[in-house]
Amino acid sequence: MPASNKIMLIDDDRNFLESNRELLEACGYEVQTAFDGESGLELARCMRPDLIILDAMMRTEMEGFETARKIAADPALQQARVIMLTGVSAAMHLPFDLEPDEQWLPVHRILDKPIAPSLLIAEIEKALRC
To answer: Which fold has domain 6-129?
Structure first.
């Protein structure tokens, strides 16, 4: 994995951000973090990440979904892969799994929280190879 891969973490859980920043930096990634969608978008436009890991529910239940659509529509960010990492299915007791969709949920992959660090790294590596 080239050391030049840049990852943006957008999540309102500061503990999640800090522990995963440390994990990803230890694996050689350049990592930036943001606590909400708007600041994440602003920072990502400057950073130009290769991958964005995005929470679904932050300040509002729909913030991550709205942020994913803004990323897909932004010419400066369209090259970035997006993994939505969320506990929304369990929190909202959804009787179905969320699936990526070009219009409503334009992300590369959706993963459930909590996630084992080894699985997260494997999914990141897979997304960056695509």
So the answer is: Rossmann fold (3.40.50)
Is this model's pTM higher than 0.90 or not?
Answer: no
DSSP string, 89-109: HHHTT-SS----BTTTB--SE
User: Sheet holding 109-112: strands in order across?
Assistant: 30-34, 6-10, 51-54, 81-86, 109-112
Give which of 94, 90, 37, 87 is closest to 66, Cα–Cα: 37
Amino acid identity of residue 75, one-letter, is: P
How many CB atoms within 10 Å of residue 14? 10
Query: Mind listing the pLDDT tens digit for each residue in 25-36?
Result: 999 999 999 999
pLDDT tens-digit profile of 47-78?
A: 999 999 999 889 888 899 999 999 999 999 98
Spans of all domains in the chain: 6-129
Name the packing angle between helices 37-47 and 63-73 (round to 10°).
Answer: 30
